[in-house]
Design goal:
This protein is of the alpha/beta class and 236 residues long. The protein has a domain of 129 residues: Leucine-rich repeat, LRR (right-handed beta-alpha superhelix). 18% of the residues lie in helices and 22% in strands. A 6-stranded mixed sheet has the order 2-3-5-7-9-10, with no helix packed on it. Strands 11-12-13 form a 3-stranded mixed sheet, with no helix packed on it. It is elongated and about 75 Å long.
């Protein structure tokens, strides 16, 4: 009986060992960007780079004897991407991150990021942490984050243009969402900077609409005139 259990244990140890080797082989099929360091779950780029493109793992040439591998699964294993000091990175495109479906943490910090396209995070529903600090962003759409359950959104050092486009950030700060209430955020109003918390722009919020009517007896088919009133709420 002891010999049987011993044989079973040896068998499973061999299976696990072969699986680990095979996983390492699959991971080695993807080349890390030159100025980055990579593991099976992380891409870390903190060296100065003027590359304009988002870092993408490149598929190595495995030759004619290459195995049939689901490349999407390899990208899905990446849970963290850190990019810092990439001065050439100005736009985050809709397609840049669509393969990283398992991504949980994204940092694009101290780069030259100016534009994030509307569907940049459409395939990244697992994102919980985003750091866009110290980038020359002037606006940021709430639609980028509408399908995410963010625990933290870092915007330190970003100076937005004051206006209705960033009213949602002010509201999130007031509600304590995504850790924004702990940050000192600013926006630019003409030639001066003000704290985003103090931004006041009229008619940013949706109006309150009410329909007033009296007790009117009408016959089916008659015309009825309604008086529509709307009230713009103001908030500092």
């Amino acid at each position: 009986m002891d010999l049987w259990f011993y044989s079973i244990r040896i068998y499973w140890w061999r299976v696990l060992f072969l699986m680990s080797i095979f996983q390492d082989y699959l991971s080695s099929m993807l080349d890390c960007p030159p100025t980055c360091s990579c593991s099976q779950t992380e891409i870390y780029c903190n060296k100065s780079d003027n590359d304009r493109f988002f870092p993408l793992l490149a598929l190595q040439d495995t030759g004619s004897n290459g195995t049939n591998v689901d490349i999407k699964e390899l990208f899905k294993n990446i849970t963290s991407i850190h990019i810092e000091n990439w001065t050439g990175l100005q736009t985050l495109k809709d397609v840049d991150m669509e393969l990283y479906t398992g991504l949980q943490r994204l940092t694009i910090m101290n780069c030259n990021l100016k534009v994030i396209q509307p569907r940049a995070f459409a395939q990244n529903s697992n994102l919980r942490y985003i750091n866009l600090s110290k980038n020359p962003l002037t606006t940021l759409s709430w639609q980028l984050f509408q399908n995410l359950q963010l625990a933290e959104l870092r915007l330190d050092g970003v100076v937005f243009e004051c206006g209705c486009n960033i009213r949602w950030i002010q509201l999130w700060m007031q509600r304590g969402e995504a850790g924004l209430h702990t940050q000192e955020l600013y926006c630019k109003n003409e030639d001066s900077q003000i704290r985003l918390h103090n931004m006041y722009i009229q008619k940013c919020d949706l109006p309150e609409i009410s329909v007033s009517h009296g007790s009117v007896l009408v016959t089916e088919g008659d015309n009825v005139t309604c008086e529509l009133q709307w009230i713009w709420t103001t908030s500092a």
